[in-house]
Amino acid sequence: MKSKLGLTLLALLGLMLLPAVGLAKANQESSAQDKSEKVRKITGCLSKGESQNEYELTAANGSTWEVKSDAVNLSPHVGQTVTVTGTVNNAAAHEAKEKAKEKTMHNPNEHGHLTATNIKTVNESCTKK
């Protein structure tokens, strides 16, 4: 009788720990930047783009992003190292394009279009690579 009770308690304890293991794995996965994510946080050097309200963000890893925003005034941050939070325009197409580049290019740098929702200055200056 005691062994059945002990086994039952052990089984219940094991079942109670399963969600905790799943949450720990989810936290590990969410901390790594994934090219399929719709919302991104990217740090790099902000420069003026080709059109009036367009800017380019060049990250240290060589990735480039065309950045636009109606919510955030980007112009005061030109020439600064910034962290931009925003949504990837057409995230599904972006992910497919980046996967294709990874398969066909030796050193593919990510390039995409981002609509900024927040900007934070990291350093007052930067050099575009």
TL;DR?
With 129 residues, this protein is α+β, with helices and mostly antiparallel strands. Helices cover 34% and strands 32% of the residues.
Description of the molecule:
The chain has 129 residues and is α+β, with helices and mostly antiparallel strands. It has helices at 2-31, 91-104, and strands spanning 39-48, 55-59, 64-68, 81-88, 111-123. The chain folds into 2 domains: 1-32; 39-123, Beta Barrel (OB fold (Dihydrolipoamide Acetyltransferase, E2P)), CATH 2.40.50. The chain has a 5-stranded mixed β-barrel with strand order 1-2-3-5-4. The longest helix has 30 residues, at 2-31. It contains 2 helices and 5 strands, in the order αββββαβ. It starts with a helix and ends in a 6-residue tail after the last strand. The radius of gyration is 22 Å and the shape is elongated. Helices cover 34% and strands 32% of the residues.
What is the molecular shape?
elongated
How far apart the termini lie comes to 72 Å
Strands across the major sheet, in which order? 1-2-3-5-4
Radius of gyration: 22 Å
Label the CATH architecture of the largest domain: Beta Barrel
How are the elements arranged and paired?
Elements: H1 2-31, E1 39-48, E2 55-59, E3 64-68, E4 81-88, H2 91-104, E5 111-123
Parallel strand pairs: 3-5
Antiparallel strand pairs: 1-2, 1-4, 2-3, 4-5
Tags for this model:
2 helices, five-stranded mixed barrel, alpha+beta, 2 domains, OB fold (Dihydrolipoamide Acetyltransferase, E2P), 129 residues, elongated
